[in-house]
Amino acid sequence: MENEIHKKLGDNICSEGEVNLEDVIGKLLIDKNLTVSTAESCTGGLIASKLVNYPGISSVFMEGAVTYSNEAKMNRINVSKETLDKFGAVSKETAAEMAEGIAKTSGTNIGLSTTGIAGPGGGTKEKPVGLVYIGIYINGKIKVKKLLCDGDRQTVRTQATITALDLLRRELLIH
């Protein structure tokens, strides 16, 4: 029965038994000798907080930056003013620049970013509450995932954090 589940779900299985998502990621990062840094806006440090739960992560997790304001995005991780003016802080373009920016400024193989609208206010028809973009930069390649979360502010932040960590896990499996 267990083998059937593994065959059907494959990489959709994050962990088994007492192992959690951050344990899986920590082990993969260390085993592959890949360094990571995070640039978080709407998740406000939750991703970094989860990563540091893994004992020994300090050998591969270099830093986490909460770049909440546009000024922090520009000054700390080199998101361009033009990108922010043209696309806004909550956009795939900004998420991509955040992921690349944190990786390059911290000298890591991987940069992971989140930017979004956690609510309860701040949403528009074009960019509703719950809209989150997750950026991942790995050794020069960038991917961005768009996420639409339901729920209150904490639920949106939690969903975005788990989704970002799962995206990192999936990318680590193929690199």
Automatic annotation (TrEMBL):
SUPFAM superfamilies hit by this protein: CinA-like
InterPro entries: CinA-like_C, CinA_C
Regions crossing the membrane: none
Source domain of life: Bacteria
Pfam families named in the record: CinA (PF02464)
Domain (CinA C-terminal): residue spans on this chain: 20-171
Protein name in UniProt: CinA domain protein
